[in-house]
Amino acid sequence: MANIEKTEFNIQQPASQERDAVEPTQREGERDAERALRPRSIEEFIGQPKVRNQLNLVLGGAKQRGVTPDHVLLSGPPGLGKTTMAMIIAYELGTSLRMTSGPALERAGDLAAMLSNLMEGDVLFIDEIHRMARPAEEMLYMAMEDFRVDVIVGKGPGATSIPLELAPFTLVGATTRSGMLTGPLRDRFGFTAQMEFYSTEDLTKVVLRAAKILGVTIAHDAAMEIASRSRGTPRIANRLLRRVRDFAEVHADGSIDLGAAKAALLVFDVDEKGLDRLDRAVLDALIRGHGGGPVGVSTLAIAVGEEPSTVEEVCEPYLVRAGMVARTGRGRVATAAAWHHLGLQPPEGALGMLEF
C-alpha cells in the first residue's frame, strides 16, 4: 500500500472567530444545570403528594423486607414527571436504571437481550409502554411474574425453547394513554400511579427551584406569572423559565421581575391563559371561521395548516381542560369562555353562557 503522509494544517482564524460566542465549557455547564433541574429524591420532588406518599410506602416496605419492589405503572399526560419518577425510584433503591421505550421494542429478542443484562434489583424503565409490539409484550408477562423468559432457537419443527432465568428486577412503565394498555399487562403491575396536573402554587415552587439551580434571580410574582401560563405542566414551566431568562439577559440585567416575565411571554406568544399561537389559531378558525361550531377536527386542521393529529393531540386537550372547547357528536364547539378570550361577544345559547 502506498504510504499516506499526514499533513497538518494550521489555519489562522480571524480574531473575531477565534473564540466561540459561547465556549464549550459554558455550553457543557449549561447542559449540566438543565439536567440538574430533575429532582433526585422523593423529598426533592415537588407536587403529586398522593403519588409521592404511596410510592414512599411501596419502596419503604420493600426495603425493610429486603425484597425487590412491585412493578410500577405511571400514567398521565406528558411533562408531569414520569421519567423523573422512574429515576427517583432507582435512586431511592440504590440500584441502576436501564431506560428504553415501547416503540424501540419491536421484537421479543430485543426485550430478551435487555432483560438478560439486568442485575438483581435493577430498575427497567419503559416509556410509552402501551406502544410495545405484541411479541415483546407477551414475553414481558412471564418476565414480570416469574422472572423468566423462554427464548426460541431455530425455526419450524426443529425450533427449541430455552428457559432463561432472570435476576429479580422492578419494571417501571410510563404511559400517556393508559386506556391503550392491554388487560394482562395492566394486571401485572403491583402499583399504579396516576399523575395529575400541577396547581399554580406547586408550579411556582418548581420555577423558583429551577431558577435557583440555573443561577437566575427571579421575583416571586414573576415566578407565579410563569407558573400560571404553564398549563399545569412542570416541563412547560421550566421551558418558559429558560426563555424568560434569555429575554432578561438580552434586554435587562439578567434578573427577572414581573414586567420582564410578562414582556418575554408576550414575545414568545404565550398569553395569560397559557395559550400559544396554534391554540389561538384553532380558536380563531372555530369562532371567526365557523361561527363557533360544531366543526370537525379535519376541517380545523386544514384551516390552521396542521395535521389533524396535531390539533387533536397537542391543542385540543388543553383547550377542553381550560373550558374553551367542547367535544360533541357533531364536532368541536367553542364555549363562551373562548369567545370572551378572543375579545368577542358570544351568541345567545353558547355553552357556558351562564358563567358570564
From TrEMBL:
- Amino-acid positions noted as binding Mg(2+) in the UniProt annotation, renumbered to this chain: T83
Q: Where does DNA bind?
A: R327, R332
Q: Where is the major localization of this protein?
A: cytoplasm
List, alphabetically, the InterPro entries matched.
AAA+_ATPase (IPR003593), AAA_lid_4 (IPR041445), DNA_helicase_Holl-junc_RuvB (IPR004605), P-loop_NTPase (IPR027417), RuvB-like_N (IPR008824), RuvB_wg_C (IPR008823), WH-like_DNA-bd_sf (IPR036388), WH_DNA-bd_sf (IPR036390)
| Chemical reaction(s) catalysed | ATP + H2O = ADP + phosphate + H(+)
Q: Which family does it belong to?
A: Belongs to the RuvB family.
Query: What protein name applies here?
Result: Holliday junction branch migration complex subunit RuvB
Gene this protein is translated from? ruvB
